[in-house]
Amino acid sequence: MSINSCSFKDRCVSILCCKFCKQVLSSRGMKAVLLADTEIDLFSTDIPPTNAVDFIGRCYFTKICKCKLKDIACLKCGNIVGYHVIVPCNSCLLSCNNRHFWMFHSQAVYGINRLDSTGVNVLLWGNLPEIEESTDEDMLDISAEECIR
């Protein structure tokens, strides 16, 4: 199945926050499931979360597929919050996926529904520009209050 037969446009955009220290990690999160094991809930994002996480440890391969991964940790508290798919395997690329390669563990991150420009309606992926005009850092400053609440 290809990305063309999958639709993610009606999914809610989430602000992702570290459960350990409440740091905003991304303003472009989406609830997801692990392609290799759909019992595992995750969050994902399409843009590298700058100034919020960094790589930690060595690259490794999954047991279920052949994706090459590297863990990411929150820059504020140092806890591992997810991983980056450095090299996706063919099986995962050919499956129904959202082209998000930054994954966050639901045990380490929580999501808050992001509102659209009216501040009333939940922002949907279909209405989110590929590259936003405001920088991710600007959005992180605005979103920080949401994570603390």
From TrEMBL:
Pfam families: YPEH2ZP. InterPro entries: YPEH2ZP (IPR026768). This is Family with sequence similarity 72 member A. It comes from Otolemur garnettii (Small-eared galago). Belongs to the FAM72 family. GO terms for cellular component: cytosol.
